[in-house]
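User: Run a structure prediction on this.
Assistant: Running it now.
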Amino acid sequence: MFLINALDKLEQLSLVRPSLIAGMVKKIKNLLLYVIYDNNQASVNLEKELSLLEEYIGLEKTGNTDNLRVLVKMTGNPSGERIAPFIILPIVENGFRQLASLDVPEKNMQLDVRVDDGHFQMRLGWSKPIDSSTLMNGNTVSLQHIGRRLNLLYPESHELKVTITTEQFIVNLKINLNRAIT
């Protein structure tokens, strides 16, 4: 789904800021090649997945007319680790989609990723209007699909948790990469 959204954004920007298109096409091409050739396996190289995640985030930031600030922090060593495809990118894409739909003066997103000795942790938070309820259901259809995939691929070795605070939506994901079903 994220590639369709990226192409839609590319089409919209081609009308107002055509100078950005060349760089965006290259990023979309890299993502598309990865989806077609690499993501058809049971597991993918985590280091490459995180590299493409950074490209995707750059693509989302490119030409964004909203007051969007994205902070990314990656720590640990993903080298040699593997993860099931279409777990990380769809969570981040969901965050960007949710953030784009909100009416807030400043749009902030923070992504913290830590990889340590076969354990993957990700915390993704994005701003929301303060006056909206903290009792809202943050479990979107996208997150429900990812949750089901995690239950199949990483049974009893993952945690996907959505928290809604006064100012933020937060998605926390923890996976024991050593306990995947292949």
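The radius of gyration is 16 Å.
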